[in-house]
Amino acid sequence: MSGSDFQATATQLLHRQSSSQQHLRQYTFAATIADRFFSDNSLDRQKRVVECARRRQTRARDKALQQKMSLLKQNEFEYLKMSAKPREWDANCSTLLQRTSSTFGGDTVSSGKKRRIDNLELSAS
């Protein structure tokens, strides 16, 4: 038997042993948690355990709802931001066209472009 075979066999034995004791460990853990409330098996202890579980579920549900609402608000904000971009771009273009026509004295876009090209050629030479 090589070292790796021995290690594999030992691992399998440990796994089998832990699997057989898993149910007992789960019961022991549950009993330990339940004993945090009362040491006897009274109905009052059982009610407290149920109430604690309900409160935990309520907190988890509220937290999930808050996260969902946060994501919805974030998505809504992103959507509004993206939908506002075309309007901003249109507003910027119209402002630019107004500036161009007032700067170069033309009423049309084509005359403004032509004069701007002429000015660029003059400044480049």
The percentage helix is over 70%
Content of β-strand? under 5%
- Principal-axis shape equals elongated
Count of the separate structural domains: 1
Structural class: mainly alpha
Outline the low-pLDDT stretches: 108-112
Radius of gyration from CA coordinates? 37 Å
How would a textbook summarize the main sheet?
Answer: none
Please tally the helical runs, counting DSSP H or I stretches of 4 or more residues. Answer: 3
Average pLDDT, all residues: 70
| Total number of beta strands | 0
Order of helices and strands: HHH
Ends distance? 90 Å
Topology (elements, then pairings):
Layout: H1 3-35, H2 43-104, H3 109-124
Helix pairs in contact: 2-3
Give a verbal description of the structure.
The protein has 125 residues and is mainly α. The chain has one domain (14-124). Helix content is 89%, strand content 0%. The protein has helices spanning 3-35, 43-104, 109-124. Helix 2 packs across helix 3 (109-124). The termini are far apart.
